């Protein structure tokens, strides 16, 4: 009887084990992602005092809802452009460098697993950015960017010796999911940054770094993906591969260095899910890879949490198949997490106290110029000269003269980057009696990542850039407009130079006048110019027109004043403080007041 019982039990165990080993089964994990959150750690926006409908406390609520179903069987990934973008971010990165950033705190609270470096992370000096990287890693967040590599032998972000071509940041992370029945799946997350970073930021922000592998000089995203997929598939034996890349979706037909995700997805294989970003467009795209398999691409666009449910098939203990279902949860559809909101209250209050302190006022004639800007967009502000843009120019010129022993600029370049409302109209237009604080300046100059610089050009180089800008204008339906494919971020207005542009003429003939105090700029030997770091990084044809880069600067606010005073809006604030009262009739401090027009 005892032998019969043992035999029966043995048979039961045999068939039970056989069913686990032989029978197919499946398990699911959730992969969540955000991208382009741009400093929105608090529930309210400091600049407006209103609820921020795309904030991290709302992300926290959305993530927790998924965690209730999936528990530990999930990954949460942020795809970059995280610690820059609003007043709270500006305050934290410039005045609280050695304190954990509110966005990093928010990611830690929510339980993020990965943070990929975006292009705006490189708006800052290494000590600002990489201090936060190390804080994030202490919180258990892997900071990835496999295509940010060393140009020469040196040190990586952890201070370890590294060779030229080695990644500065960790290129990937491996996550092993173990299920109750003993099955497990190995998931690799590869992080990649934007290949076009060098077009936007000064080299001092990323010393000895390249934004593509040294053997991939053209920055082709597909090459970077192939490189690291080969490593994680063959060396790490990953069952599933996720690529988190801070690149826009782009087109399958035309190459764009900053937005090449779709093209890369179709040119590679071995990737199961791609998380992209940068273009602020929330979407889900399914395409075919190079061997005809489906690849899902998700992008939260700064306004949604992406949720991808990966159903993993197993047979004989091995991963044999995978299916993916992705969706978007709009952040404006969920309520903020109260605990995280309260955690950020101190940051909000500190930032508001700093930003709302009065530093001057508008008066003496601004009411007469309101029609120039009210109801107008940034695109409208390049169609005619305005007192508001002249104010930006006068401030930039003045600031370059405030360092002892430095003879500053007499000409200013700037494109309109005013804050706008939901209708893309300027959100703040000065009136007589208005107080000026950092709050107002954030609406008059949106990008605190733009740093003030000054460079000396020959008159011909100045003319070349002005000619390049003139070529950006065109006539459409009988009206002056920006040309096809032209970005407002590349179209400068100028001060200190009298000029006229005729968009009806052929390219290279549109700049019909460019004079300084009655002298053709081409006849002038040298001109000192105030401009921002974004322009100086060389994009939109500036490098080709002038041949100038950061190394040619005779003055930068960072070098002479420190990183906390270097942002253009901060420098404008110093001008306002010195002036006390700012009026449209204020004379430029150095050089000549000027006029410009577009011939219609």
UniProtKB/TrEMBL annotation:
GO terms for biological process: nucleotide catabolic process. Pfam families: 5_nucleotid_C (PF02872), Metallophos (PF00149). Residues 1-18 form the signal peptide. GO terms for cellular component: outer membrane-bounded periplasmic space. Residues 31-281 form the Calcineurin-like phosphoesterase domain. GO terms for molecular function: hydrolase activity, acting on ester bonds; metal ion binding; nucleotide binding. This is Bifunctional metallophosphatase/5'-nucleotidase.
């Amino acid at each position: 009887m005892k032998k019969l019982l043992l035999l029966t039990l043995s048979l039961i165990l045999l068939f039970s084990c056989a069913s686990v080993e032989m029978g197919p089964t499946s398990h699911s994990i959730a992969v969540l992602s955000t991208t382009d959150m741009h400093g929105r750690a608090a529930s309210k926006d400091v600049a407006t005092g209103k609820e921020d409908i795309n904030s991290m406390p709302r992300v926290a609520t959305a993530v927790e809802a998924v965690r209730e179903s999936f528990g530990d069987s999930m990954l949460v990934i942020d795809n970059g452009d995280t610690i820059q973008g609003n007043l709270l971010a500006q305050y934290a990165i410039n005045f609280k460098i050695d304190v954990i950033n509110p966005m990093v705190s928010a990611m830690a609270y929510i339980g993020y697993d990965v943070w990929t470096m975006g292009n705006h992370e490189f708006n800052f000096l290494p000590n600002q950015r990489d201090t936060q990287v190390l804080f994030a890693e202490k919180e258990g967040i892997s900071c990835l960017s496999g295509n940010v590599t060393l140009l020469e032998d040196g040190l990586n972000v952890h201070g370890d010796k590294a060779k030229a071509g080695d990644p500065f940041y960790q290129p990937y992370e491996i996550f092993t999911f173990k299920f109750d029945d003993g099955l497990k799946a190995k998931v690799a997350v590869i992080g990649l940054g934007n290949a076009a970073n060098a077009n936007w930021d000064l080299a001092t922000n990323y010393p000895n770094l390249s934004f593509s592998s040294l053997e991939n000089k053209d920055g082709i995203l597909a090459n970077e993906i192939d490189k690291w997929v080969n490593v994680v598939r063959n060396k790490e034996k990953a069952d599933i591969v996720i690529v988190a890349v801070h690149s826009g979706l782009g087109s399958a037909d035309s190459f764009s260095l900053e937005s090449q995700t779709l093209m890369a997805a179709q040119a590679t294989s071995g990737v199961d899910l791609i998380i992209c970003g940068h273009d602020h467009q929330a979407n889900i795209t399914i395409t075919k890879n190079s061997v005809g398999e489906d690849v899902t691409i998700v992008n939260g666009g700064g306004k949604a949490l992406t949720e991808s449910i990966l159903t993993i098939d197993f047979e004989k203990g091995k991963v044999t198949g995978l299916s993916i279902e992705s969706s978007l949860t709009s952040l404006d559809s969920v309520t903020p997490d109260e605990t995280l909101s309260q955690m950020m209250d101190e940051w909000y209050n500190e930032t508001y106290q700093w930003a709302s302190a009065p530093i001057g006022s508008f008066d003496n004639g601004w009411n007469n110029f309101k029609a120039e800007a009210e109801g107008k967009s940034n695109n409208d502000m390049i169609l005619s000269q305005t007192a508001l843009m002249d104010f930006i120019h006068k401030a930039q010129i003045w600031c370059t003269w405030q360092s002892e022993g430095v003879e500053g600029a007499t000409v200013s370049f700037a494109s309109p980057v005013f804050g706008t409302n939901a209708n893309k109209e300027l959100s703040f237009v000065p009136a007589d009696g208005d107080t000026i604080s950092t709050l107002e300046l954030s609406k008059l100059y949106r990008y605190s990542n733009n740093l003030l610089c000054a460079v000396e050009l020959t008159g011909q180089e100045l003319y070349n850039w002005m000619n390049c800008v003139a070529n950006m204008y065109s006539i459409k339906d009988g009206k002056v407009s920006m040309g096809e494919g032209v970005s407002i971020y590349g179209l400068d207005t100028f001060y200190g130079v009298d000029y006229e542009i005729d968009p009806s003429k052929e390219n290279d003939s549109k700049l019909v006048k460019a004079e300084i105090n009655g002298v053709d700029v081409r006849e002038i030997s040298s001109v000192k110019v105030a401009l921002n770091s974004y322009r100086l990084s060389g994009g939109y044809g500036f490098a080709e027109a002038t041949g100038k880069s950061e190394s040619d600067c005779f003055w930068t606010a960072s070098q002479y004043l420190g990183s906390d005073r270097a942002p253009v809006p901060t420098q404008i604030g110093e001008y306002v403080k010195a002036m006390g009262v700012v009026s449209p009739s204020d004379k430029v401090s150095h050089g000549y007041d000027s006029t410009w027009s577009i011939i219609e």
